[in-house]
Structure formats: structure tokens, C-alpha cells
Amino acid sequence: MREEILSILEKNSKIDIKELAVMLGTNEETVFNEITDMEREGIICGYHTLIDWDKIDNEKVTALIEVRVTPQRGQGFDYVAERIYNYPEVHSVYLISGGFDLLITLQGKSLREVSAFVSDKLSTIDSVLSTATHFILKKYKDHGTIMAAKPKDTREVIS
Amino acid sequence: MRNPLSKTIVTIKPSGIRKFFDLVNEMEGVISLGVGEPDFDTPWHIRDEGIYALEKGKTFYTSNSGLTELRQEIANYIKRTQGVTYDPKKEIMVTVGGSEAIDVAFRAMLDPEDEVLIPEPSYVSYVPCAVLAGGKPVIIDLKAENDFRLTAEEVIEKITEKTKILVLPFPNNPTGSVMGKEELEKIAKVVIEKDIFVLSDEIYAELTYNGKHVSITSIEGMRERTVLINGFSKAYAMTGWRLGYACAPEVILKQMLKIHQYAIMCAPTTSQYAAVEALKNGDKDVEEMRRSYNHRRRFLMNAFREMGLDCFEPFGAFYVFPCIKEFGMTSEEFATKFLMEEKVATVPGTAFGASGEGFLRISYAYSLETLKIAMEKLAKFITKLRNEKA
Description:
CATH architecture of the largest domain in chain B: 3-Layer(aba) Sandwich
Order of helices and strands of chain A: HHHEHEEHEEE
Oligomer: heterodimer
CATH topology of the largest domain in chain B: Aspartate Aminotransferase, domain 2
Largest interface: A-B, 14 and 21 residues
Distance between the termini of chain A: 34 Å
Largest sheet of chain A: 4 strands, antiparallel
Number of strands of chain B: 12
Structural class of chain A: alpha+beta
Distance between the termini of chain B: 59 Å
Number of helices of chain A: 5
Radius of gyration of chain A: 21 Å
CATH superfamily of the largest domain in chain A: Lrp/AsnC effector binding domain/regulation of amino acid metabolism (RAM) domain
Order of helices and strands of chain B: HHEHHEHEHEHEHEEEHHHEHEEEH
Strand order of the largest sheet of chain A: 2-3-1-4
CATH superfamily of the largest domain in chain B: Type I PLP-dependent aspartate aminotransferase-like (Major domain)
Number of domains of chain B: 2
């Protein structure tokens, strides 16, 4: 039940409880309780909206930044990660295996704003050894959703 | 000029689905609930395997009965889902959709005047294919009070000395009805006692919502007298690939293969390679699609309840079959009026046999958003009809 609720909510967090209950063949109370429990347990961490910012004039730049750091004694990467994720403009921070350590996604108003963040805030953190910034030019798919216009239903109307 | 046509073919009526299709096709902006194919794209890894086969130049005929590897995968699939063993070398044949298998099975098994028991409402091909094979269709009218399941009594009632084949079309298009193990056992008893054969069309086998599908071949004594038909169209959303298969005892399959060999040669090679991938790695996709269909099915049943429209709960395929008798119209009148006034296309139950009168086939191979809009329109439409009557 939980997994099924989550798989639906992940695609559409706007769905109402009554509809969810119908689709799952159960009652509203059960669904409501499950969701509340999962919120409390931190399984459901938030409800976000997937926005194609390219469609509105308000320009935004998204960057992926690879960061190499020196882990801190006793705290590993957690300390430096915290220093980074506390900046509100930072969207996500992941610890990564491979050639670098942390992967950051960042959203800014302009290239200048993003580069200012990298040079002024990120690179100046003591344990940061190096950074590599990649700007996202086009989003094809995000959060499992293909951003391109939905293709028309080309099936025969009756078959 | 002489009449160029055969006497048989001119007696065959065009499909009832076709007639309504032409009507809908002339209109703009119609929301259709009329399709008999999944709305999902074929899962990417399956398409990719087809593309890979093309890239590799695997573009030649396969053996008449299909790729060895595919037949092996089909055998594995039936073994793991039904516990029934078929020899992939001699008892399995890959066909151009399940529909070719139906045609070929009839042609391999029927002599002139042999009777074929066909439960209706059901898929539109059985009757014409039986006629074209020289057989005589005998219709069993399934009853709404049995949720359109077939009973052993109904079979007994129609069996004669000449009965050769019973068609078993479950999970059913258009009703969504499924048969349980116990019901099948009762039918199997009759079939064995009367020494007839079964053509079991299990194309919707993967789409059941109240437990796993049971094939009549899994009942003792039935594998020997059944042609099992299935395919990739519904389960893996592969309609356009045109790929199905038949499993039958060697004595039948050997003759079916002759017809297939002369008429078709082999099923499309690209599709066969893709199908291997579907059977090997497609379970998860099927599970996801089934789950999605089930959500929609429940949504529709609830919408009918809310608008007070009578409908038994179907547990298979992707159709619901609500009853519209309260409005005092034929299925065709209702469907036509609904189409004209609300621009929503459904299929009259009568397209699937006379016993579909008073019912509509509504497909839920559509997104929830589409179904929601359509149900709002249906509710509005029937409220209007009820007000007019009152």
C-alpha cells in the first residue's frame, strides 16, 4: 500500500485523498493516515512542483558543480557538505563515488551570479580543493518527466 | 463479367466496430473511449532490442514456427505462470498477432459443417474466421447475471453431435469478465466428456486484477485438447508489432504450421527479437501497466456508482461494460446520441454480438485525465436523459 501511494504521489502530489482512495480500492481515512505517518517518519519529505522555467521570461541558470574536498577528521564529508547545503541557492548536494567528492546543483539568476557563488563562497571554504562548473543548456527530462510536448494520441479512435 | 467473389465471403458482415469507427472518424474533437489497444508505448528496452536487431541486419526470415530462442522463452513463460509444459520445438508457433493464430487453428481443425461454440459478447473475429474455415458458428449468449462468465450448463445446452470446438475468450473483450479455476474445471469436465476441443484465447492473460489468470490448459486432461493463444500486444503494449503465438499438442500444431508456412512464411523478424527481450526482462513493465490499469478501472467503477449507472465489476482486460437498459434505447442509439451530444466515443455492446444489447464497451486504455473528462460528460449526459424521462 505504502509503495503504491508513493509511486502515485511521486508523479502527482496534487492528487486528492478521495481520488487516491478510489484508485487504491480503499477508504480515505486509511490513505490519509498512511500519508500522515509517512510524513512524520520522514519518508515523504516535501511536495514540490516541477516547473519548466524556460517557458517563462524570468531567466534562470542551473549549474552542476563537481567539488573535490578534503574530508575532515571525525566528520568525513558531512561537515563540508553542511557548509555548502546551508546556502539557499544550493538545490541539492550529493556525495559521489569516482573522480570527485560532492556534486552540487545550483540555481541562479545569471551566469554571473552562479560564478560569483563559486568563486566567493564555494572555493573559499577551507577544505575545498577544486571545483568544475557545468551549466545546463537544456533540460530534456527532469524527475522522470519528459519536458518535450506530449505526442498526440495517434491510435485509431475505435479498434 | 462473371461474379469475381466467393459465395462465402459476401455472406460475412463487416465488423460492427468498423461501422462505428467510420461515424466517429468524420467528427472533430472527439474524446474516444473506443480503443482496444494499450495507451502505453512499448517499453523502451523492448523497442531498443528491435532497433538493435535492425542495426545488426537481422532482417531475414526466421524458421516458420519462429525463432528458437523466442519459442523457448514462450515455453518458459507458460511453465512459470501456468505450470504447463510445451515442447518449444514441436508445440509452439509464433504468429502474426493472436488473430492469425485464431484463423489458423480453425482452418486446421474444422471440416465443413463442424460446429464451433462461440460465447458472446466477444471479440469480433471468431465468427467470421470459423465461417471462412468452413465451420458453423453456434453462439452461446453469455448472461449479465453471471457477470458474462461462461457456465458448463450453457455449454451442454448447445453441444450437438457436430460440435468440434469451444472458443474460450477470457479475460474477455468487451466485458472484462474473467473465469476462475472452479468454473473452468466444470467446463473442462464437459469438454472431456463430450470429446470436443478448446480454442482458448488468452491474449489478456496478464491483465487481471483479482489474482493471477488461470489457463484451462492447467487443468488435467485439457492440455491435450486445447489450442492456447496468446501474444505480446496487450501485455507489453506491442500491438503494432503484430506478434502472437499458439501452443497446442503436436498433432494439431503440425497442421497449423503448414497453413502458416504457406500463407505467412514467418512472423516479422524484428518483432520476434523484441519479443525475446519482452519475455526475458518485461515483467516489471507489465506489473506497472497492470497497476495503472487497475487504478483507472477502480476510478471508472466509482464514477459509475456515483452516477448510479449499473455495471458489474470486471476483473480483466481494460474494458468496463456498463448497462444502459434503464434509458430505453438500444446500445447503438445510446452510443450514437452520446457521441453526437457530448462528443465521446464508446462502442455499442452489440458490436460484439447480439447479447451485448443494452451495454456499452468503455475502454480504460486512456490517461486518468481523459477518463475524468469523459466521465463528467457521461454523468451530464445521463442526468439529462433521466430528466427527459421523468
